[in-house]
Amino acid sequence: LQEPEEKKIALELLETEQAYVNRLHLLDQIFYAELMKEAKTGKVVPEEVVKMIFSNISSIYQFHAEFFLPELQKRMEDWNRNPRIGDVIQKLAPFLKMYGEYVKNFDKAVELITAWSEKSPPFQELIADIQKRKVCANLTLQHHMLEPVQRIPRYELLLKDYVRKLPPESPDRGDAEKALEMIFMVAKHSNAAIAEMERLQNLWVVYQRLGLEDDIVDPSNELIKEGPIQKVSTRNNSTSEKYLFLFNNMLLYCVPKVIQVGAEFQVHLRMDVDGMKVRELNDTQFPHTFLVSGKQRTLELQARSEEEMNAWIK
Hints:
There is one protein chain. By secondary structure, this protein is α+β, with helices and mostly antiparallel strands. It has 2 domains: about 5-190, Dbl homology (DH) domain (Dbl Homology Domain, Chain A), CATH 1.20.900.10; about 225-314, PH-domain like (Roll). The chain has helices at about 5-40, 45-55, 55-75, 85-95, 100-120, 120-130, 140-165, 175-210, 305-314; strands at about 225-235, 240-245, 250-255, 265-270, 275-280, 290-295, 300. The radius of gyration is 27 Å and the shape is flat. GO terms for molecular function: guanyl-nucleotide exchange factor activity; zinc ion binding.
């Protein structure tokens, strides 16, 4: 007899959950616990740093090991009499908000591991020692730490599949659909946290390339496009190499620095997007040229190709 599709998916959820709990156990009970024990001796690494690396992994581990996995196991043992998992996943969803903190902290955690591995050989040795154990399966601490970041999208995929394969009259339909919606909201929340973190990091890198000019560093800015451009000078019929950064609120017209110490660019002009007009120029001498006019001034710019010009104009 062929197992119904939805049961296969529910079993896959259970199997991956079991493997996931083992991974969380490794992170919390082995890496975190042993590093903490060493930290308490005061020689290897400060306790604060270990806590910062592992964030709230303990709460995540406890929740999955003591609540979600056992509930899922009970459901699957009872499947033939009562084929449903939607209700358990509804109980799981609100707790997944705990991941927000872990996910936001992830990049910083990886940076701390790198920094302290360089600073403290005993710290590096302890991690290397744990990584050699069979339970680590030849993977690094950083690799294991990525698992919680990837777990919520995995729930979402499995549950989507589960709902798709449920027969219309299944007693689990209503619950499973509601559970999927809840997981979707949490995933969106967690993805938004990741996206926001990436946006801020990219923004910071751009600010560094611009030499961190005070009036430009603003966390709410969004970089839309950047790239080299030629400035056309009609006075002496020539062009010169410039560089543009287009944000949601301003255009920075920059000159690449010859000597790159610190900043890569010097901001020559800052133009507000508010009130800015852009149009193509049909200039036979300088093809792919467009005009940007703002409150501050007007620039005649030449792109390297028609596509590039259109991309800027758009």
